[in-house]
Amino acid sequence: RQHEAPRRVKRAWVIPPISVSENHKRIPHLLVQIKSDKQQPGGVIYSIKGPGVDEEPLGIFSIDKFSGKVFLNAMLDREENDRYRLRAFALDLGGVTLEDPTDLEIIVVDQNDNRPLFRQDVFTGRVVEGAEPGTCVMTVDATDADDPDTDNAALRYSILEQGAAGMFSINATTGEICTARPGLDRETMGVYNLTVQAADMSGDGLTTTAMAVIYLEDINDNPPEFTKEEFSMEVEEQAAGVDVGRVFVHDKDLAGSPSWLAKFTILEGDPEGAFAIRTDPHTNDGVLSVVKPLDHEVRDRFELTVSVRNERPLEPSAPASPRALATVRVRVRDVNEAPVFRENPRRISVLEGTPPGTPITTYTASDPDTHQIQTLSYALLYDPADWLRLDPHSGTVRTKRELLHPSAFLQGGWYIALVLARDDAEPPLSATGTLSIEILEVNDHAPQLQPPAGVLCGRPGRGGTLLLGATDDDRPPHGAPFHFQLSPQHPQLARNWSIARFNVTHAVLAVLAELPEGLYSLPLLLRDSGTPPREQHQLLNVSVCHCGRDGTCLDGVLAAATAGAGITLGALMIILGSTILLLVLAGLGAARARSRRRALRKGLLQRSRDDMRDNILNYDEQGGGEEDQDAYDLNQLRHPELFSARAKPPLRRDAPLSSGTPLAPRKLPSSPSDIEDFINEGLEAADSDPSVPPYDTALIYDYEGSGSVASPLSSIVSSLTDEDQDYDYLNEWGPRFRRLADLYG
């Protein structure tokens, strides 16, 4: 590529920067005329582009396209835009470029048209009272939107007003406010309000003002003082944790500050430390309180010396003053005091099993009111197991029943009871004493073998061991360690068995010689470590199994039944016996039920001339069902042989009309072969009986109860064909149903 040589630009086409003042009011205003050296016969067309022409802000500048004159069409604001850069173009009438575009820069000249502005309306500062002159407090500052390179933005600061004292000054250039003289005292004047001014043109131009508020911070230059020298108060005896009264002080320092907050001290008059004094943070008063109960009988008056000072030490510049002191006199009022158990709780020990009526202790209280004659009485306030009996006058505690261990009412072997002591004053006062009774363990239980059975391999050395354990209901030290040994009454057991201790609760049983398979009962002697020790002979059932190569039992069924399942031989025998007993009882119950059904069937159909059930009675009353026990005597159905025809038949006690006995009992036919004839004869006898009510008489339907113990009757219509019914049982009903048995059996 070949670089083009720079072309020479005509002098008339180079436009220097143009300056124009802001806020120019003569509009339109000619700024400059541009001209191209390349004049054409038809003339040159001029144009400009850029901000203020075809870019925002629009319409500020324009150009005469034939003469090249550039005009200002609006007032300018330097604070918005301090210069404009435009591009000028020269074209012939055909639109062909005659000159390269040139730059046209318009500079806006500043005018002092903006006042200074403080950054905030109110400035806040703090300085401690008594500060030395020259101590700077704060700095106020302002800004000016005019050109900072001109005097239009050159600011100067001053204090217009601060009161007559003139305690502060300001740096005219930086705006820093400092103390001007000593004597700042917060107690005299705590806040200073200053009016400050900022002016441009180095103090001769436009001005603005703001407020500067200066707070004096308090220092501890004033000690607290009591409002009076003596204070009097009164408090009841035996009162603790209560406020007795207040002492009042005054402090000139700032309320709520550490320089104002008081601290009180009791210097004299309270050697036992019965009183305390604290500061109320809201009022700065001293609050005197009782921290230990006072006894009027011991001391009825106190005279306390109290001092006060601030939490924060006084400043060295504060004037010296003596220590503030006050005298506080406290009088103790006498009141009725509650009885006192000097030993609370009272701890005693009692052997378990102590018989009823045994005195175990005397638990009494004392009355601190020595100036009053009072009588104390006692009562059991809490005795959860009802084990104790208390004498209300002497306070002697006796056992009411045998103290047992273990018990749900014991906590770690201790039984807790509460005793109430009450005086006879008006109103009476009481006190509660805690009686803690330790139930001492007695060695009254021998250790029990657990479990009492096991399985082991009958080969010595490999698998021929069994881990034995024991439990004891007694607590330490009357339990473990346990001692296991073969019964001394059977010394021959030592030839085949041995027992070695494993730990304090277990031992290891081992075989000494190879034993055949089977069940062995070994008598053992177990002994605990109590005082005195308890021992017991117990049987251990050992199942010796066939040994494998690794010393385990090959008989898996035996191992599972005795070892794996954890069921001893005795437990297994109990389970088998219970099962057999249940089976026998179930069989007896079934046989009894079957015999009762057969007897009922035979009894209902038994021929007897004395059977009152063949008489037609008043059947139009439904009765109360199976729960109706008032209608008929069921013993006639169960034992018909006990009732004869001469006996008076029972009457229904719930019949609406008296149903008398038929005139003559209807006798059974000699050969009742036809059931239909038999029933018809009965109906005819009933219809001709004048003692029964007519057929349209209102009937009585009693409540039959919530259920029936009889079997359901649904089986009556469960089949529609004779082939589905079994009539063989008719043979058991006697000769009266023999014909039916022949027809359907």
Automatic annotation (TrEMBL):
<dbReference type="InterPro" id="IPR000233">
    <property type="entry name" value="Cadherin_Y-type_LIR"/>
</dbReference>
<dbReference type="InterPro" id="IPR020894">
    <property type="entry name" value="Cadherin_CS"/>
</dbReference>
<keyword id="KW-0325">Glycoprotein</keyword>
<dbReference type="Pfam" id="PF01049">
    <property type="entry name" value="CADH_Y-type_LIR"/>
</dbReference>
<dbReference type="GO" id="GO:0009986">
    <property type="term" value="C:cell surface"/>
</dbReference>
<dbReference type="InterPro" id="IPR039808">
    <property type="entry name" value="Cadherin"/>
</dbReference>
<feature type="domain" description="Cadherin">
    <location>
        <begin position="342"/>
        <end position="449"/>
    </location>
</feature>
<dbReference type="GO" id="GO:0008013">
    <property type="term" value="F:beta-catenin binding"/>
</dbReference>
<dbReference type="Pfam" id="PF00028">
    <property type="entry name" value="Cadherin"/>
</dbReference>
<protein>
    <recommendedName>
        <fullName>Cadherin-15</fullName>
    </recommendedName>
</protein>
<keyword id="KW-0677">Repeat</keyword>
<feature type="domain" description="Cadherin">
    <location>
        <begin position="464"/>
        <end position="554"/>
    </location>
</feature>
<feature type="domain" description="Cadherin">
    <location>
        <begin position="236"/>
        <end position="341"/>
    </location>
</feature>
<dbReference type="GO" id="GO:0044331">
    <property type="term" value="P:cell-cell adhesion mediated by cadherin"/>
</dbReference>
<dbReference type="GO" id="GO:0005912">
    <property type="term" value="C:adherens junction"/>
</dbReference>
<dbReference type="GO" id="GO:0034332">
    <property type="term" value="P:adherens junction organization"/>
</dbReference>
<dbReference type="GO" id="GO:0016477">
    <property type="term" value="P:cell migration"/>
</dbReference>
<keyword id="KW-0106">Calcium</keyword>
<dbReference type="GO" id="GO:0000902">
    <property type="term" value="P:cell morphogenesis"/>
</dbReference>
<keyword id="KW-0165">Cleavage on pair of basic residues</keyword>
<feature type="transmembrane region" description="Helical">
    <location>
        <begin position="569"/>
        <end position="591"/>
    </location>
</feature>
<keyword id="KW-1133">Transmembrane helix</keyword>
<dbReference type="GO" id="GO:0007043">
    <property type="term" value="P:cell-cell junction assembly"/>
</dbReference>
<keyword id="KW-0812">Transmembrane</keyword>
<dbReference type="InterPro" id="IPR002126">
    <property type="entry name" value="Cadherin-like_dom"/>
</dbReference>
<keyword id="KW-0479">Metal-binding</keyword>
<keyword id="KW-0732">Signal</keyword>
<dbReference type="GO" id="GO:0005509">
    <property type="term" value="F:calcium ion binding"/>
</dbReference>
<dbReference type="InterPro" id="IPR015919">
    <property type="entry name" value="Cadherin-like_sf"/>
</dbReference>
<dbReference type="GO" id="GO:0045296">
    <property type="term" value="F:cadherin binding"/>
</dbReference>
<dbReference type="GO" id="GO:0016342">
    <property type="term" value="C:catenin complex"/>
</dbReference>
<keyword id="KW-1003">Cell membrane</keyword>
<comment type="function">
    <text>Cadherins are calcium-dependent cell adhesion proteins. They preferentially interact with themselves in a homophilic manner in connecting cells; cadherins may thus contribute to the sorting of heterogeneous cell types. M-cadherin is part of the myogenic program and may provide a trigger for terminal muscle differentiation.</text>
</comment>
<feature type="region of interest" description="Disordered">
    <location>
        <begin position="648"/>
        <end position="674"/>
    </location>
</feature>
<keyword id="KW-0472">Membrane</keyword>
<feature type="domain" description="Cadherin">
    <location>
        <begin position="12"/>
        <end position="118"/>
    </location>
</feature>
<feature type="domain" description="Cadherin">
    <location>
        <begin position="119"/>
        <end position="226"/>
    </location>
</feature>
<dbReference type="GO" id="GO:0016339">
    <property type="term" value="P:calcium-dependent cell-cell adhesion via plasma membrane cell adhesion molecules"/>
</dbReference>
<dbReference type="GO" id="GO:0007156">
    <property type="term" value="P:homophilic cell adhesion via plasma membrane adhesion molecules"/>
</dbReference>
<dbReference type="InterPro" id="IPR027397">
    <property type="entry name" value="Catenin-bd_sf"/>
</dbReference>
<keyword id="KW-0130">Cell adhesion</keyword>
